[in-house]
């Protein structure tokens, strides 16, 4: 069994070593320019076109992340680069769900407990009281109810937030979450929300989804938490919504250009919190174990989960 590994930075050695520990009989190599030799499996992150050229014996391509826009492109334009008939498999959790739930919960609680406002008072040297918010008046809408979104929604609900969640297709595991789906359910999910959490996959249908039209449906003075992809957000629309007061604050972990350029206005916007794409880092050991386990299952002729529907982009 031949496994080919690619990363744009060339730092594949830890993955080679880790996969070899799980699959000791595999022949594992790091991709080098000009490598068109056969491989049973590709393990990769943000591949170039040459890596994805058809090669003999290829059974599956494993993406070293939950989001596959690095393979398919922001608007799905890269799907045609994939070898025909070869499934693309994404990561499922791999240690990210707990991190994401912690990050989003911390941001939501910061807004709910008005800690951002107290930070501003401290900077001004003010000792000032603010009336506490009520949980019943602080509904949270979570866009995206996959593995990560469901974990985040349940974590928020555990603090007592009224939580709604939206997914493209119907989900059955509500666990006390008010679930909505499809085009008809989108407005019902977001209307009047005080906190909007974006965990959508990046697909042609979700590019620019965080825009002025959506912000207008939220409660006045709502908060945005974007931990999915920067291309979901129309930056100028958010800045305008902040200026008008329709959005009271935003916590942004992802951006259209990363690192965020020094001249970008988000750096200077007083009600925007910027973090450098750290809300949920892929954990290498968990990633290696998941990919190796799925390769072993395929070798045994078993079905696996995480196969990407190329028509949907996730």
* Main sheet strand line-up: 8-7-6-9-10-11-12
**Percentage of residues in DSSP E strands:** 15-25%
Uncertain regions spanning at least 5 consecutive residues: none
Identify the overall geometry. Answer: elongated
Average pLDDT level? 96
Structural class: alpha/beta
Quick one: how many beta strands? 12
Q: What's the gyration radius in Å?
A: 21 Å
Distance between termini? 27 Å
Number of helices: 9
Helix content: 25-40%
Major pleated sheet: 7 strands, parallel
- The H-and-E topology, N to C, reads as EHEEEHEHHEHEEHEHEHEEH
Write the topology of this structure.
Elements lengths: L1 E5 L6 H10 L4 E4 L10 E4 L15 E4 L5 H4 L15 E2 L6 H17 L2 H9 L16 E4 L3 H12 L4 E5 L10 E4 H9 L4 E4 L13 H6 L4 E5 L8 H10 L2 E6 L19 E3 L9 H16 L15
Parallel strand pairs: 1-2, 1-3, 3-4, 4-5, 6-7, 6-9, 7-8, 9-10, 10-11, 11-12
Helix pairs in contact: 1-9, 3-5
Structural write-up:
β10, α8 (235-244) and β11 (247-252) form a beta-alpha-beta unit. This protein is an alpha/beta fold. The mean pLDDT is 96. It has helices spanning 13-22, 69-72, 96-112, 115-123, 147-158, 182-190, 212-217, 235-244, 284-299; strands at residues 2-6, 27-30, 41-44, 60-63, 88-89, 140-143, 163-167, 178-181, 195-198, 222-226, 247-252, 272-274. It contains 9 helices and 12 strands. Strands 8-7-6-9-10-11-12 form a 7-stranded parallel beta sheet. It has a 5-stranded parallel beta sheet with strand order 2-1-3-4-5, covered by helices on one side. The two termini are 27 Å apart. Helices cover 30% and strands 16% of the residues.
């Amino acid at each position: 069994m031949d496994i080919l590994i690619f990363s744009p930075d060339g730092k594949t050695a830890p993955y080679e070593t880790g996969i070899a520990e799980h699959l000791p009989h595999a022949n594992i190599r790091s991709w080098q320019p000009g490598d068109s030799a056969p491989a049973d499996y590709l393990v990769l992150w943000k591949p170039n076109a040459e890596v994805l050229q058809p090669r003999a014996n290829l059974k599956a391509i494993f993406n070293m992340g939950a989001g596959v826009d690095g393979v398919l492109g922001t608007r799905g334009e890269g799907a045609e680069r994939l070898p025909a008939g070869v499934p693309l498999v994404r990561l499922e959790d791999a240690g990210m769900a707990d991190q994401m739930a912690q990050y989003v919960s911390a941001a939501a609680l910061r807004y709910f407990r008005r800690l951002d406002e107290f930070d501003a008072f401290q900077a001004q040297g003010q000792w000032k009281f603010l009336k506490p918010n009520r949980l019943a008046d602080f509904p949270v809408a979570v866009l995206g109810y996959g593995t990560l979104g469901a974990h985040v929604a349940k974590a928020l609900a555990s603090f007592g937030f009224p939580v709604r969640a939206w997914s493209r297709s119907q989900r059955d595991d509500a666990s006390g979450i008010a679930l909505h789906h499809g085009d008809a359910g989108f407005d019902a999910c977001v209307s009047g929300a005080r906190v909007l959490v974006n965990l959508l996959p990046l697909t042609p249908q979700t590019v620019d989804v965080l825009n002025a039209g959506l912000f207008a449906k939220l409660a006045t003075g709502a908060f945005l938490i974007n931990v999915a992809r920067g291309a979901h957000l129309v930056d100028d629309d958010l800045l305008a919504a902040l200026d008008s007061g329709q959005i009271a604050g935003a916590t942004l972990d992802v951006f259209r250009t990363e690192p965020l350029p020094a001249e970008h206005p988000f750096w200077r916007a007083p009600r925007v919190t910027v973090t450098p794409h750290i809300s949920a880092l892929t954990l290498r050991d968990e990633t290696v174990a998941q990919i190796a386990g799925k390769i072993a299952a395929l070798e045994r002729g078993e079905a696996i989960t995480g196969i990407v529907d190329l028509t949907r982009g996730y």
